[in-house]
Design brief:
about 150 residues, alpha+beta, four-stranded antiparallel beta sheet, four-stranded mixed beta sheet, 2 helices, about 20% helix, about 30% strand, globular
Length: about 150
């Protein structure tokens, strides 16, 4: 092979290696702003439990609460205003989110739930189930003393 062919082959090989090595780095989720982000840059993590990240936003009187796992995967999100809750269709566990408007369903829990987020009016909990899934519940915080002891 002549020198010119060798140089072209080497350049192609180096280019292919660069693309191959850059692929995984480009595929990683980068911090972005807003609801649905793995690591929102416009909200603070207000989680009360290790292993979870909870982010909140308020817009036009509606509070949005998003729960992520330890790796930044969105699990559930809910919007709430004036005691009404609207589960948002996003996250890996979106089908496992209960709200007062949805009523209650029978669940089989292996342990008691842990409070992930709580402010003066809203409480979000996670309860592991015997099936391996986690049940998330968003509800109005009805005990004023308890609700104000965990101000975020």
């Amino acid at each position: 092979m002549n020198r010119k062919g060798f140089a072209v082959s080497t350049a192609l090989l180096v280019g292919l290696m660069a693309i191959t090595l850059a692929g995984p780095a480009a595929a990683q989720q980068q911090p972005t702003a807003g609801l649905g982000s793995a690591w929102p840059t416009d909200a603070t993590d207000v989680s009360l439990a290790p292993g979870y990240h909870v982010y909140t936003w308020t817009n036009s009187g509606v509070k949005y609460i998003q729960v992520n796992d330890y790796a930044g995967n969105v699990l559930v999100a809910v919007a709430t205003a004036n005691g009404a809750f609207l589960p948002l269709p996003m996250g890996r566990s979106a089908n496992n989110l209960q709200t007062p408007q949805a009523g209650t369903t029978s669940t089989t829990s292996t342990t008691s739930g842990v409070t992930l987020y709580q402010d003066g009016s809203v409480q979000v909990t996670a309860t592991p189930q015997t099936s391996g899934a986690t049940l998330f519940q968003a509800a109005t915080c009805t005990n004023p003393v308890e609700c104000t002891t965990h101000i975020n």
